[in-house]
Amino acid sequence: MSISPTPVERGTPAVLWTAATAAAALGIPASGAWTATGVCIDSRAVVAGDLFIALTGERTDGHAHVAAALAAGASAALVSRIPAGIATDRLLVVEDTLEGLWALARASRARFAGRLVGVTGSLGKTGTKEMLTQALGRFGRVHATEGNLNNHFGLPLTLARMPVDTDLAVIELGMNHPGELGPLARLARPHVAIITNVAAVHLEFFASVEAIADAKAEILEGVEPGGTVVLNRDNRFFERLRRAAAARGIDKTLSFGNHIGADARVLDCAVDANGTAVFALIGDDPLAYRMAVEGRHWALNSLGVLAVVHALGLDIHSAANGLANVVPPRGRGRRQSVSLDGDGAVQVIDDAYNASPESVIAALTTLSMTRPGPRGRRIAVLGDMLELGPQAAKLHADLAKISVERGIDLVYTAGPLMAHLHDALPASRRGGHAPDADALTPLVLAALRPGDVVMIKGSKGSLVSRTVTALLALDRRAEAGLSAADTP
């Protein structure tokens, strides 16, 4: 494979599918003469040139929106029945549209001449995917998973959208039940697979954390012959995963972490308001670089990224320089300064996308490394961690000790599970508790003072992202001469 030495600018969207190539992928007769420059499963998001996939779900049926999608500019639609009034020369008719989407994905993967990286893990998948996209962008055309489209809908959609001239692909694979990752891995067929870690997430659906490790190991089912697996050397399941790789005939394994035996090893890192500085060792090669994201967990996963780059035979120094451009996605640790009553500011760390015990500990650790302003405090606002099963109450309460050890000044909690943390905290650390995020938000806003650093984290279903929204809105309220306490 030939890889361009520098990033390649994109111009007019390339043709992804023609009526003929799509029909061939689906194993049906060709009809019409259209071309598609995109693939979409949501009629509300259709842009001109898309191939619209009419998926049938529990709540909606895409067939009811085929006409709207075509009117919005879609070139054609993939359907399992012909909607009334739609010309058949703009339709691909199959028995099952989800299976049709998978068929397009298989065809796209089969014609792909580059190399593909598969990313999974209990924590840090999306951040690692973003870092890989930036690092590999220095070597050619990169196609990557958008957002967290990593399930049985999102992953085949990502592959079906992959341009023919892609050099490198970065594909995120997610799961929350046993048996889900294997089919995704066999579809993606990564040349390099990275498992960021294994942690106590989705315990509601697993008998043990060991079972989660085995489910993550399903990514190995798709690794191409001669491929490489990158594993977290610090994780207690490292040997379990390494043995699983060996059992599948995968003899190329690289590791990353703090462990002295890691192939990509963090020697030191420092967190400040501008990001994280990392000093590392890749094999025998010392490396120093900066990232515009905060947190030791970002530094550790960046070493996994560089191990992937090394496995691909690319220049790790150039890739490390690319990490300087990494920006944390919304809800995953992005920091913003917010004016407070025109008399100073608070720093808001938006980590509200999701939460598990290990990710909350990582967020508290990052908060502990921040430097508040004069009279400022380190404040954590935490919503329920969901899908933890029978251990949920204990796992929430156990965060009290960590909060104290990390020097968090105040902890605000929302939700019935976080009540266990609130009760376990020393009285001096209790900021306040409420049954939900909406009720907690006014308590947080009323307590703020200039110099505070506020970190917000919780499972998506806890809705603590609403607290983030309210905090970020303070800038506009300050301009209007209102105080935080005036927020309804």
Q: How does this structure look, described?
A:
By secondary structure, this protein is of the alpha/beta class. The chain has 17 helices and 21 strands. The protein has helices spanning about 20-25, 65-70, 95-110, 125-135, 155-160, 180-190, 210-215, 240-245, 295-310, 315-320, 355-370, 390-395, 400-405, 420-425, 435-445, 465-470, 475-480, and strands spanning about 15-20, 35, 40, 50-55, 75-80, 90-95, 115-120, 140-145, 170, 190-195, 230, 250-255, 265-270, 275-280, 285-290, 335-340, 345-350, 380-385, 410-415, 430-435, 455. Strand 13 (about 265-270) and strand 14 form a beta hairpin. Mean pLDDT is about 90; it is low at about 1-10 and about 480-488.
Give the helix level as a range of percent.
25-40%
- Overall residue-averaged pLDDT value: 90
End-to-end separation in angstroms reads 59 Å
Number of helices: 17
Shape: globular
Q: Give me the Rg, rounded.
A: 24 Å
| Unreliable parts | 1-10, 478-488
Structural class: alpha/beta
Number of strands: 21
For the sheet with most strands, the description reads: 9 strands, mixed
Side by side, the strands of the main sheet go 8-9-7-10-11-12-13-14-15
Question: Strand percentage, roughly?
Answer: 15-25%
Task: Sum up the structure in keywords.
488 residues, alpha/beta, 9-stranded mixed beta sheet, 6-stranded mixed beta sheet, 17 helices, globular, disordered N terminus
List the topology elements.
Blueprint: E1 17-18, H1 19-26, E2 35-36, E3 38-40, E4 50-53, H2 66-71, E5 76-79, E6 91-93, H3 97-111, E7 115-120, H4 125-136, E8 142-144, H5 154-160, E9 168-172, H6 181-188, E10 192-195, H7 209-216, E11 228-232, H8 238-247, E12 252-257, E13 264-272, E14 275-282, E15 285-291, H9 296-311, H10 316-322, E16 334-339, E17 345-351, H11 357-368, E18 378-383, H12 392-397, H13 399-405, E19 410-414, H14 418-424, E20 430-434, H15 437-447, E21 453-457, H16 465-472, H17 474-479
Parallel strand pairs: 3-4, 4-5, 5-6, 7-9, 7-10, 8-9, 10-11, 11-12, 12-13, 17-21, 18-19, 18-21, 19-20
Antiparallel strand pairs: 1-2, 13-14, 14-15, 16-17
Helix pairs in contact: 3-5, 4-9, 4-10, 15-16
